[in-house]
Each structure stands twice: as C-alpha cells, then as structure tokens.
Amino acid sequence: MHAIPKTRILGTGSYAPARVVPNAELEGVVDTSDEWIATRTGIRRRHFAAEGEATSDMAAEACRRALSAAGLNAADVDLIIVATVTPDSPIPSCAVLVQKKLGASEIPAFDIAAACAGFIYGITIADQFIATGAARCVLVVGVELLSRAVNWTDRTTCVLFGDGAGAVVLGPASMKRTGEPDREPALAPGILSSCIFTDGSLAGALRIPAGGSARPADDEVLRTRQNKVHMDGQDVFRTAVKQLTASSTQALKASGLTSRELDWVVPHQANLRIISQVSQRLGFPLEKMVLNLEEYGNTSSASIPIALDEAVRDGRIVAGHHVLMCALGAGISWGAAVVRI
Ligand code: ACO
Predict the structure, then answer these.
(1) Label partner for 33 (CA 20 to 30 A): which of 4, 99, 124, 148?
(2) In 10 A of CB 234, how many CB atoms?
(3) Which helix or strand (DSSP H or E) is residue 96 part of?
(4) Best substitution site from 206, 207, 236 to test ligand 1's pocket, by max atoms within 8 Å of Cβ?
C-alpha cells in the first residue's frame, strides 16, 4: 500500500545566473584541466553570480517562477523556508530578504543550514507544518552562492561548485491547481515519505573552519582562508555512496513503493561517480536519474530543486510520476524523499 500524502508540490521554479564558466576557464585559476574535472566529477560548466547579485536575489527569482508555475501569488504564501549555507549575511536571515523581495505578507520566514541536504530538510519541515494545518502554502527554496565561499587557491574544492537557486511551492495534498483534472484518491499527488539524518562525528569532513563565533574572522583567518570551504573529498565520497543508498532505501520502503514503481530519481548533483555507484546499489538505471551537474556543478541545497524544475519543465517528469530525491553534504547531513507529482 502506498503512503497517503498530506502535502503536495504545486509548482517548481529555478534560476541560474547568466555567467557560464566552463572548466577550461578554471585552468587559468588553479593547476587543473578540463579533462581532470570532467572525468573525476562529470562537471563541465557552472554558473556564477554577477557582481552585485546576492543569494536572496537568486532565491527570490526562483520563488517567483515556482509561484507562477503554481498559479499563485506572493500573497498566498504563509511560510518561507530558505535552505542555504551562503546567506547574504548572518543577520538578517536570507529568508527575511526573500520575504521582502517577494512582497509577501507578515509571515514566518527562516533559514535552515543543512548544506547539500538542505532542500530535503526543507520539504520535510514544510510537510510537518502543512500536515498539522499550521501552514497552507509554503515556499521552500534551496539557494547557494558558492563561488564566493570557496578557496580559489585550492583546486580540490574550487572546481566543484556553482551558484543557483531552485524552489517549490508546497500545499495540502487536497489542493488542486486551476484546471487540473481530478485524480483517484489512491493516486493523489504529494510527499509519500521523507527521512533526514545527521552524523556530527563526521563534522570535520566538510567545513568552513572560521569566520563564525568560535573563531571570528581576523587577519590570520583571512590570510589562511580558514573562512572558506575545506573538505576531505574521499571521506565525503564514501559516506555519500553509503548513506544516499541507505536513506533512499528507507524512504522508498516508507512510501510503500517498490523501486520498479519509481519513474525518476533526482539525486544531489555532486559527482557523477557518486551517482553511478548509488544507481548500481539501488538497482535503478542511471538513464532514469535526472542529471544536470555537467551544466551547473554542485550547487549544494539548490541542486535537487533545479534538476527537478528542469525535468518538470521539459516534460520528463509529469503528473502521476513517482520521484525519489536524495542528498548528502556537510554535517554530515543527509536524507531522501519520495514524491508523487
Ligand atoms: N585538478 C587536477 N588534479 C586534482 C584536482 C583538480 N581540480 N583536485 C585534486 N587533484 C589531484 C589530487 O591532488 C591528487 O593528486 P596526487 O595523486 O598527485 O596526490 C589526484 O588529483 C587525485 O585526488 P583525489 O582526491 O584522490 O581524487 P578523487 O578521485 O577522490 O576526486 C573529488 C576528488 C572529486 C573531490 C572526490 O573525492 C569527490 O567528489 N568527493 C565528494 C566530495 C563532494 O562532492 N563534496 C561536495 C559537497 S558534499 C556533496 O555534495 C556530496
């Protein structure tokens, strides 16, 4: 028996900055090559925000596009959740700026910092608000401006990331979009299951060591770039393959679906080799995985909602499809969700 959803996706939207940076351009920045980046990661290009463009600008644009797809306005929204580890500034939160830029009402708006798993965390939280009736129309946006958070002298990390935003509008499963045909109750759209996890014992594997309260930014921090991303790539890689497989299996079981009933998997877009290994372990073909890391690199919390939006807009994912989403990142935090579109 399939799980009965309480919350559904009403619309998706995404935004990528106009500036495209191919791998070859990075050859002039660090000792790397297009060939190394493409074969080790699957990434060929990424988008970088323009000067003066902020995280909240990208988030607000993705939200406008998601609202438009849902046939709703900012005035309909009663909660905004922004998943980001690269907010415009520590205070106010990015969600506050998004609320203002959208012209939304005096509603709750807050950030969550779960890195690459942020979007799965965000929809899981939104699902709780909607299921309890505390909120009716929730914007969840994953957004990152990582080009300003990486160490541009560290070739092992700076080539991996990109900037962008992806959003969904969530509402009660019973809510219909204008003109949408009725569906049998057993085929109602919505979030069938989700699960989220954290293992803080692995916190050192991926971090920005300084620039916060434990070690405020001083000259030494800036000189040694301790306020930028540091990562043990192989630790993260191994944990990603293991935990993405485990959480996907758990979410699938909780949804009541078998892997054969899944139409698509939208994985976090970190590394094609991670995705291939998860595909093998899940027994789910790579051709049915939505992939766009070639174009965007790793956009952390934005990667799943951007990929989801692209697949919805180009008609790969359609009403009735079952979609598994899974992500893992700094924390280490991870999670998975199964959704009927
Ligand atoms: N260009 C050229 N050479 C490089 C580069 C680069 N950009 N980066 C590293 N190398 C070199 C290394 O110095 C090393 O050289 P050596 O053998 O002479 O010492 C060699 O390439 C191999 O390095 P490895 O670290 O063993 O390379 P690996 O195959 O593990 O790939 C990578 C590294 C891509 C970072 C991989 O470990 C990875 O993808 N890990 C997951 C991390 C990740 O994606 N994190 C993002 C956030 S978390 C998440 O989204 C899941």
Answers:
(1) 148
(2) 9
(3) helix 94-102
(4) 236
Protein residues with CB under 6 Å of any ligand 1 atom: 32, 36-37, 40-41, 116, 155-156, 159-160, 206, 231, 233-234, 236-237, 240, 268, 270-271, 298, 328-329
Determine the Cα–Cα distance for residues 249 and 254; give it in Å rounded to an integer: 9
**pLDDT tens digit sequence for 107-146:** 999 999 999 999 999 999 999 999 999 999 999 999 999 9
Beta strands per DSSP E along 252-311: 264-267
- Summarised one tens digit per residue, pLDDT across range 234-260 is 999 999 999 999 999 999 999 999 999
What separation in Å is there between the alpha carbon of 156 and the centre of ligand 1?
A: 5
Length of the chain equals: 341
pLDDT at 59: 98
Domain ranges of the chain: 7-172, 185-340
Considering the candidates 63, 116, 158, 326, report the single residue annotated as catalytic: 116
Is it true that domain 185-340 has CATH number 3.40.47.10? yes
Given the residues 268, 271, 292, 322, select the one marked as catalytic. Answer: 268
| CATH of region 7-172 | 3.40.47.10
DSSP character string of 184-205:
-GGG--EEEEEEEEE-GGGGGG
Q: What are the phi and psi torsion angles at 175 (to 5°)?
A: -75, 135
Do domains 7-172 and 185-340 share one topology? The answer is: yes
